[in-house]
Amino acid sequence: MIEETAVRVEISAARFASQSIFDILRLTVQAMSSQNYGQQSLNALNRQERPLASVDVNKKTLPYIRRQLKQYSVDFSVTKDRDTGQMYLWFKGQDVDRIQTALENCIAERGKERPIPELKDLCDRAAQRVKEMNQSRPVPPPEHGERL
User: Fold this and answer.
1) Rounded to two decimals, what is the model's pTM?
2) DSSP helix/strand/coil, 93
3) CA dihedral over 79, 80, 81, 87, signed as positive or negative
4) Where would I find the H helices in the chain?
5) I need a labelling partner for 122 at 20 to 30 A (CA). Which of 9, 50, 65, 97 fits?
6) Number of neighbours of residue 135 by Cβ within 10 angstroms
């Protein structure tokens, strides 16, 4: 009788443990799959608690820039000023190297068809803006893990 009870308790504990492990794995997979990269709302960028930088862009170059930034898994947001009609590309300050690489690739890709000086100017302005911002901000804590 006592042995049967002990076996039942062990079986229940094993079921509980396996179900708990399964739930933890399921939640981990959900959390990992819910991470979205690419274009986001400005509020979603702000929730990541990283300093943001912005550069102004025009409508003509925006589709090419979006495509390259998505390929490099850069979190960005595009906003339009209602008064002036000017469009701004917002990004995290830590992503400036990826943004610069993406913009250089965009320049090279578009340069085959025809040169777009706006992209080169945009790349230079983004690098200059982030340099200015990085001089006045404290060093952020390191990210955990590698971002793919």
Assistant:
1) 0.52
2) helix
3) positive
4) 2-33, 42-46, 62-71, 96-113, 117-136
5) 50
6) 7
Residue 23, token pair as written in the block: 């739930």
**In the block, residue with structure tokens 């997979």:** 29
> What is the Cα–Cα distance from 25 to 22, expressed in whole angstroms?
5
Q: How far apart are CA 40 and CA 91, in angstroms?
A: 10
How many C-beta neighbours within 10 Å does residue 47 have? 10
Tokens coding 103: 């913009």
How do residues 74-124 score in pLDDT, each as one tens digit? Answer: 888 888 888 888 888 888 877 777 878 887 887 777 766 555 676 677 778
